[in-house]
Amino acid sequence: MILVTGAGGFIGQSVVERLLAKGYQLRLLARGRERSEEAFPKAEIAKGDVLNPESLEKAAMGVEKIIHLAGLTSYSDRDKERLYNINVKGTEALLKACKNAERIIFASSVAVYGETGKDEKADENYRQRPDSFYGATKQMAERLVLESGLDSVALRMAPVYGPGSRSWKKILRFMEMGFPIPKTGSFTHIVHVTDAAKAFEIALEKGKGVYNIADKKPIPFADLAAELARLLGKRPVLLPDNLMKILAYSAGMGTLFRIWTMNRHYDISKAGRELGYSPKAELQKEIRRVIRWYKSGMHRAEG
Asked: Quick one: which of 47, 57, 207, 242 is 20 to 30 A from 86 by CA?
C-alpha cells in the first residue's frame, strides 16, 4: 500500500492518475473525502491532513511507501507561520506516523538553492542559499526526510507547469493584462507535470538521496515570456530590467517578480544516471496546451 499526501494538488493529481493507471494500490490522505472519492474512485481515501496526528496514525496503518506531496507554496510574509507548520511540522508528524514504512519519496524544491549564479548549473551538491522562507521550509523538511532512517528520496522539483497550474494561471493573467517583460539575461528552467509525475513513479523503486527534476535545458526568460504574450494575442512589451523591478515593487509584486525572473539552471544528469529519468515533454507544444486551457476558462472553474 502506498500513502499519498497532497493528492488533490496540481502535481498530486497527475501522480495519482499515473499510478492508478499502472495498477498501484493507493491510499490518499485527503481533507475532503467525497471530492477525493469522486476524483479517484479506484483509490482508498483516508480523511485527514498532515496537521492532524490522529488522522495520520490511521492513514499510516499497513503502509509500505509514502509519496509526500502535501505542502504550501507561498512567498508572502503573512504565510510564514503556515509555511512552517505545514511544510516542516507536517512532514515531521507524517514521518512519526509512518515510522514503520519502508520508503518515502518527498516533493522537495529547487528553491533550496535560491538563484543560480550566472553561467552556473546547480547539481545536487550546489550550495544551498534559499532566498525565500518557502525555500527554507523545503530545505528543513527535506533534511527531516533524509535523516528519518527510512529509505528516502527527495526530488528537487523545478517550477512545474501544465494545465491546472495555479501559479501559471497567475502568470498568464498578468501577461493577458499586458504586463511588460523585463529585458533580463536570466534563464528559467521548468518541468512539465507529466515528467514530474513520471519521476515520482520511478522513485518508488529506484534511487536514494536527492535528485534534481527539470526539463532537459533552460530557456531565456524573456523568450518564454514573449512567446506566452504572443500566444495570448498580446504584443510583447520589453522594458529594462531595473525599471521593471521598480514598477513591480511599486505595485507590491516585488517578491513575485524576483521569484519569476530569477536565474535558474539545474543539472539533471544524476537523475538520468540513477533513476533513468528523461523528460519527454516538448516545451513549445505544452505551453500552447496551457494557453488553450487558460483561454477555455477552465482555470476559473478549477479555482
From this structure: 207
Quick check: is 121 catalytic? no
Could you give the count of Cα atoms lying within 13 Å of 179 in the half-sphere of its Cβ?
Answer: 18
Residue 6 has pLDDT above 90, yes or no: yes
Residues 1, 23 contacting (CB under 8 angstroms): no
Tens digits of per-residue pLDDT, 98-151?
A: 999 999 999 999 999 999 998 899 999 999 999 899 999 999 999 999 999 999
Q: How far apart are CA 54 and CA 33, in angstroms?
A: 16
Task: For residue 182, give the nearest of 254, 133, 233 by alpha carbon.
Answer: 254
When computed from its CA atoms, the radius of gyration of the chain, rounded to whole angstroms, is 19
Which value, to the nearest 10 degrees, does the dihedral of the CA atoms of residues 295, 301, 302, 303 take? Answer: 100
Q: Which one of the listed residues 65, 121, 138, 169 is annotated catalytic?
A: 138
Contacts of residue 100, Cβ cutoff 8 Å, sequence gap at least 6: 60
Torsional sign, CA 148, 266, 170, 247? positive
Residue extents of the structural domains in the chain: 2-161+189-217+265-281
pTM of the model: 0.93
Spatial distance between the Cα atoms of 192 and 279, rounded to a whole number of angstroms: 8
Quote the DSSP letter at residue 89: I
CATH number, span 2-161+189-217+265-281: 3.40.50.720
